[in-house]
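re: ur question from yesterday

yeah so i grabbed the chain u mentioned. its 191 aa long if i counted rite. heres the sequnce exactly as i have it in my notes:
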Amino acid sequence: MGLMYLFPTKDSDPDHIISKDNSLILRSYGLPPIFWFYLLAILTIFSFLVLNVWGPLQKMLRIGEGLDILIAYSLLILIFCAPIILLGFYFYEKNLVVKKNSLTLIDKVFFIPLRKRSYPLNTVNDLCINHFIDSPNMARIKDEKALKAFQNRGYFELLLKTETNTILVDRHSNHGSLVKIKSLLESRALL
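ran it thru and got these structure tokens back, copy pasting raw so excuse formatting
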């Protein structure tokens, strides 16, 4: 999700970089406005689909039996839950909370914390940036100028290495942004 929900990299953003009580909180940005237009288009089409099946669905609930009732109630659950779940993607927020020698990752939906994980942060070497590319770069192998735009550049991962495993903190297509986020986290964590 780090490629869509970006973290701030400059200190001049008081809404997304919060410093208080010897801790630093980085809040991810929301989705860009174009995605809200996508949501409006999806919900418009979904509402037309619901209007078309509403009559037959009511008839199934009235005169159906057995499997028909089960299908009708399943469709009703889908009709009411799908827009809420879709809207949840637009109100998703990831927080990185750094205190002395600890890093906490918090996932929120509709401003409600759903998952909270804390990890010790002992040295500067605990945080590292890794370049991730999952497929062979055929355009680069052929090394033709016409194929330069089609090269798979992959993305970069900010990882936290603990004693037992490696935790993905954030992903980004820009290496420089992860370097800035890493320096923000390290500046507060190792006071």
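noticed a couple things. The beta strands are 17-20, 23-27, 92-99, 102-109, 112-120, 127-132, 155-161, 166-172. also The longest strand covers residues 112-120.
anyway ttyl
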